[in-house]
User: Fold these one by one.
Assistant:
Number 1:
Amino acid sequence: MPEGTVHDVVIIGSGPAAWTAAVYAARANLKPVVYEGEPVGTEIPGGQLMLTTDIENFPGFPEGVTGPELMERMKAQAVRYETTVISELVTSVDMSQYPFVITPSYSEPVRALTVIVATGAKAKWLGLPNEMKLAQQGGGVSACAVCDGALMFYRNKLLAVVGGGDTAMEEALYLTKYASEVVIIHRRDKFRASKVMADRVLGHKKVRVIWNSEVTDVHGTDEITAIELTDTVTGEKSNLDVGGLFIAIGHEPNTKFLNGQLDLTSHGYIKVDPWRTSTSVGGVFAAGDVIDDYYRQAITSSGTGCMAALEAERWLAHHGIGESPILETAEGPVEASPEQMEEPPTDRRSVPRPRGGAGVAR
Ligand code: NAP
């Protein structure tokens, strides 16, 4: 068990859910500590919005706002109150101990009475042998047009985008600024993307779509030269010479560091109670894209971040720490029976917990 301060709330993540949770927790005097992550490959603190250009649907910005600016402003708002930001990844959380133990990449483990997991989701890859190799060596394969598309490497070349969702549409439109032509490769004959985004793409003179096709190989030693396409209807194979390949086929939630300690949905997202952010472990809450495979919007992430902070505040108040403005609801307070207590609380930091389980049973 690490020595030192026990934090009321540790927030893991740095997207809209994490910063909104931090703003609410800080304003509730919980002095949140945010582990915002660190740059690893195409993953950077700030989450997926750091890879997004204009956001036109976040309320309060009638002229639109860029993803990075929105994240910067949310972070500044959290820091304006008493939020401590640590630029490290969390490598593990031990939920079998209470207070929970959070282990970051470099610094000492810390303890926390409540944890809010807001680690988002990351891009998926096709899984082809040469795909990752070329992606890792900057050889013309990427999962983030906004990160890489403006590089000289990609200028005035034919660029391929794989996928049929909103991300693929957004990436294709972004790449039209730099490419000679953008070719979207989609495995079906209909986009999954919203109509407005699909129409923008289909009406763009620099974009062409190859329907019913999958990328089944990536050619090139140091740099990509071509991709192999397989027709999903006929099985026929063909090659397309390209100067870059952008994979935009969706995302997977970042939950590996939890090491199976929280219940997940069948799609690997953290399972939370209906209309709540409480997880299978009492005192651990989750918010944002790591719980959401349905809405996946900045505004819904912010909403669940707010909910998580309020629930953490309320949970602490139920266990004798601080006050919650929303204690009185239809749900009664959670109480541990005397025999469940390890020892009576001696100060604000020694919250009782049931024996033999992670956190406090709900
Ligand atoms: P998505 O909606 O899940 O779409 C993924 C696309 O990739 C689908 O078209 C899918 O094909 C295709 N795909 C998946 N695996 C594949 C594989 N192995 N090989 C080839 N193709 C594959 O993911 P997304 O586009 O990242 O969007 C996620 C969510 O974020 C959506 O709710 C979206 O609306 C939202 N979003 C919104 C905006 C915005 O409003 N500006 C921008 C980006 C994303 P099938 O269609 O055949 O399944």
Number 2:
Amino acid sequence: MADLLKLGVLISGNGSNLQSIIDNIEKGFLKAIIKIVISNNPNAYGITRATKHGIPVVILKNGDFKNKEDFDSELIKILKNNSVDLVILAGFMRILTSPFLKAFSQKIMNIHPALLPSFPGIHGQKQALEYGVKISGCTVHFVDEGVDTGPIIIQSAVQVFDDDTEETLSARILKEEHRIYPQAIQFYAEGKMEIKGRKIRIKN
Ligand code: GAR
């Protein structure tokens, strides 16, 4: 157990990426342990997923804090108390403050449902459809001070079809998200990432 990577997973909603991380841990592909799941939404289905697998959950409601800094300082406290090595944003719909980013510098990963740097922010799939791209996909990246601007770890592309809706495209992208997020975390766990500026090389 000693050498398992300790994860803190932050969610706001359905938690299907959380589920794929749990599944990949349980099948032995991902050498990690989820120490804590934190949700800023008390109704997030991801809470049920975590509980089903015996993972501790903390709910932090946005409205219970005076400001973003207070919210984030509580987040830092919980994650540090759980000795978290790597913070995983899995559909966590909040922008993190600078003190949080400093507390976990190069130790926060996010998954975004578009091929960055295209379509950052919210509704990446809708933005892609409206733009009329023929290919979209998803990106796992480290989090920096910008919105979805951090160094890219893995991307996966999917085709966009003429009759796609936001739902059909999102479902196609989500399937790839569930594949590449655990893979990116495992690369980190294995110490395979060579980070130079904003370029990340995966060592063999
Ligand atoms: C995923 O598609 C994720 O890429 C996206 O939210 C969804 C969460 O799904 N994240 C963002 O848009 C972040 N900007 P999940 O709760 O089922 O994992």
